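hiii so um. not sure if this is the right channel but i have a protein structure encoded as C-alpha cells and i wanna go backwards to a sequence. like what aa goes where. can anyone help
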C-alpha cells in the first residue's frame, strides 16, 4: 500500500473491516433467505429465482444477490432484509425510509441502486425488505495506492451534498445515535472528557449546515470498477444535516482500518477539494456513540486511546 512514503514497521496493521469477520452475527446475516422471501421477490418481479449469494460487509441487514430468469432474459438484483429484531424495534420504518430515499436518488449525480420492490412491514418477505438494482462493482478496503483512492472517496462528497434533496422530500433530519450507556467507558483515562462530550451531545446544535448526507459514508459502501468509483450503496441512514457528518464517519472507519495518518489525510483532501471548513461538533456527538461501540468491538488499546485523544482535541476546538 502506497501512502506517499514506503511502508515500514511503524505502519499499523490493517484491522478487519466491520461486517467481513466470521462472527455469529455475520454468519446469521449471510444465511440463505427463507423461501417466503424468495417467493416474494419472484412475485414482485415476475421472474424465477435461479440462485442466491450472500454479500459480505453488512452489519445491520442481510444482503444477498439474487439471480433471476424471466423468459429468455437473466438479471441479478439485490435483496436486503432487516432481520435484526432490536433494530426493527428501534426503527420500525427503516425499510420505508430507505425506499423513499432510493426513489429520490435520481436527483443525485452518483450512480446508485434503483428501487424495484419494498415490503415495509415484512408481512410477505418475513422481515422488512427491499429489492433494488445491482450496481456493478466491488468494495475496496486494501488499495495498492492509497492517495488516489482517498481523493476519489473525497470527490464523492460534494456530488452527494450538492443533491437537491431536503427534509421537504420526507428525508429524516440528522440525529446522533444514543450510546449504549450514558456512563463513561471504563477504559477512559480522563472521564471528564466524557462529561464534556455529553454536554455537547445534549446541548444546542452548533453546526447549522444542512445538506443531503449519506450518514453511513465509508469505503465499505463505495463500489469500484477498474480503479474508479462505480457507485454508492446502503442508503437506509440517509439524512439532511451537516456535511461534516459524512467526513467524520468515513474518517472513523479509516482510523480503525489504517490509523490516524490516513484518516487525517482524508480530512485534509476533503477540505482542500471543497474549500469547506471542518466543524468539530459532529465528531464530538458521534464519538459519544462510537466510544461505547468500540469498547465492545475493539480489542486494540491503542485504537481506544486514539479515540479518547481525538475527543479531547475536538472538545478543545469547540471551546470559545
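sure thing!! here u go:
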Amino acid at each position: 500500500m502506497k501512502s506517499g512514503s514506503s511502508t515500514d514497521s511503524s505502519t499499523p496493521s490493517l484491522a478487519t473491516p466491520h461486517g467481513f469477520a466470521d462472527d455469529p452475527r455475520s454468519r446469521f446475516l449471510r444465511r440463505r433467505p427463507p423461501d417466503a422471501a424468495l417467493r416474494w421477490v419472484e412475485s414482485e418481479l415476475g421472474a424465477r429465482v435461479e440462485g442466491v449469494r450472500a454479500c459480505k460487509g453488512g452489519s445491520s441487514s442481510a444482503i444477498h444477490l439474487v439471480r433471476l430468469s424471466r423468459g429468455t432474459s437473466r438479471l441479478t438484483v439485490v435483496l436486503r432484509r432487516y432481520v435484526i429484531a432490536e433494530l426493527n424495534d428501534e426503527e420500525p420504518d427503516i425499510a420505508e425510509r430507505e425506499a423513499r430515499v432510493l426513489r429520490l436518488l435520481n436527483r443525485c449525480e452518483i450512480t446508485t441502486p434503483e428501487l424495484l420492490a419494498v415490503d415495509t412491514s415484512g408481512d410477505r418477505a418475513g422481515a422488512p425488505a427491499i429489492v433494488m438494482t445491482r450496481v456493478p462493482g466491488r468494495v475496496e478496503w486494501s488499495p495498492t495506492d492509497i492517495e488516489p483512492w482517498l481523493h476519489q472517496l473525497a470527490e464523492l462528497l460534494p456530488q452527494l451534498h450538492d443533491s437537491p434533496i431536503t427534509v421537504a422530500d420526507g428525508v429524516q433530519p440528522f440525529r446522533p445515535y444514543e450510546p449504549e450507556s450514558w456512563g463513561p467507558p471504563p477504559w477512559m483515562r480522563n472521564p471528564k472528557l466524557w462529561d464534556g462530550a455529553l454536554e455537547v451531545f445534549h446541548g444546542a446544535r452548533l453546526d447549522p449546515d444542512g445538506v443531503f448526507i449519506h450518514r453511513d459514508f465509508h469505503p465499505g459502501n463505495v463500489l469500484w470498477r477498474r480503479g474508479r468509483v462505480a457507485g454508492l450503496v446502503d442508503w437506509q441512514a440517509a439524512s439532511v444535516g451537516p456535511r461534516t457528518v459524512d467526513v467524520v464517519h468515513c474518517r472513523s472507519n479509516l482510523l480503525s482500518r489504517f490509523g490516524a495518518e490516513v484518516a487525517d489525510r482524508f480530512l485534509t483532501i476533503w477540505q482542500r477539494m471543497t474549500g469547506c471548513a471542518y466543524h468539530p461538533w459532529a465528531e464530538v456527538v458521534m464519538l459519544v456513540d462510537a466510544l461505547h461501540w468500540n469498547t465492545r468491538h475493539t480489542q486494540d488499546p491503542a485504537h481506544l486511546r486514539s479515540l479518547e485523544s481525538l475527543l479531547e482535541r475536538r472538545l478543545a476546538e469547540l471551546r470559545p
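oh and The longest helix spans residues 301-318.
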